[in-house]
Amino acid sequence: MTNNLTRSRVLQLYKRLIKLSHTWQAVDHPAKTAEERLYIRNETRNLFRKNKHVENANELEEHIREGEARVELACHYKNPYPRLVNLPTYSLPPSHNRIRYKSEYEVEDMSRPIYLKSYEIKEETSDNEEPSKT
């Protein structure tokens, strides 16, 4: 029964995002409406395809929460693109001559907003791919 509930929540979220991509209106620059609609549609499809094999219930719940948070932020601020994040200074990376402790990594993870989880994964993979090409 839990799988059916989770499946229906995922499908509802997907439908909501696709409908949003059809009805989206750019507020600041009306000429960019088509570009922003395309961004919403492509981002939705890419992330849902990337995460379609996720089986862990906790991880699924986290992805659903991230999607819902991103929809709410986009609707509230009228901007579909990722928002800037201001992390506390104690969670910023230290200088190269100091060792980071486990608690510093934990604080950094806790202070990171949920709606940026999928962007961090993209950055890590793109950073790993660039050195191998050279």
TrEMBL record:
Task: Provide the Complex 1 LYR protein domain boundaries.
Answer: 9-71
For this protein, the record's InterPro entries field holds:
Complex1_LYR_dom, Complex1_LYR_LYRM1, LYRM1
Q: Per its UniProt entry, which superkingdom is the organism in?
A: Eukaryota
Q: Supply the PANTHER family for this chain.
A: LYR MOTIF-CONTAINING PROTEIN 1
**What are the record's GO terms for cellular component?**
mitochondrion
Family affiliation: Belongs to the complex I LYR family.
* Protein's name according to its UniProt entry: Complex 1 LYR protein domain-containing protein
From which organism does this entry originate?
Adineta ricciae (Rotifer)
